[in-house]
Specification:
single chain, about 170 residues, mainly alpha, 7 helices
Length: about 170
């Protein structure tokens, strides 16, 4: 509940800021609803269940590593190597799930056709992924290293206030 409300509220605030930066005299309510709903459902709810799986993915990857010292660091949940591994898993998630869901989902919620939303995804994906990687890899490394699991989504949605302005502006 808290993660969903925090995600929605900060996505709302981020979109208002972005629309004001863009010079919109009147807030586009359809866009604001789409961003708020996406922020609550995806970043607040879906990620609440997804983030705890990332350490499992890092552990599985660690078992494929031939270097014993690196494997040990990846398996140590208190190490920066493990945290960075979780951030890399998140980055792959961003490429394959988050960005397509964002562009298509928000597009549909704003009243675009499916084909138009997919066209936007194809046109904007590479730039958005570069921005996403530059922003989220460092942040999520710190998030997985220093923030307790029960607060990671809230830390992320707090940073997401700034990210919403970036991705909203790119989109």
């Amino acid at each position: 509940g808290v993660d969903v409300c925090t995600g929605a509220g900060l996505a709302f605030a981020g979109d208002v800021v972005c629309q004001k930066i863009e010079g919109n005299a009147i807030i586009d309510a359809r866009r604001l609803r789409a961003m708020t709903l996406f922020g609550g459902l995806y970043t607040g709810a879906f990620l609440h269940f997804l983030y705890p799986l990332f350490p499992n993915a890092v552990r599985a990857a660690a078992n494929l590593v031939s270097s014993a010292p690196l494997r040990k660091r990846l398996l140590d949940q208190t190490s920066f190597s493990h945290a960075f591994g979780c951030a890399v898993v998140d980055n792959v998630h961003c490429a394959l799930i988050y960005l397509p869901t964002f562009f298509v989902g928000v597009g549909l919620l704003q009243g675009e056709s499916f084909d138009a939303a997919v066209a936007t995804l194809r046109r904007e994906w590479s730039d958005a992924y570069v921005y996403c990687s530059a922003f989220w890899l460092p942040f999520m490394s710190l998030n997985f290293r220093f923030v307790p699991q029960s607060h990671r989504v809230r830390a992320m949605v707090s940073a997401n206030l700034l990210w919403t302005v970036v991705i909203d502006y790119v989109a």
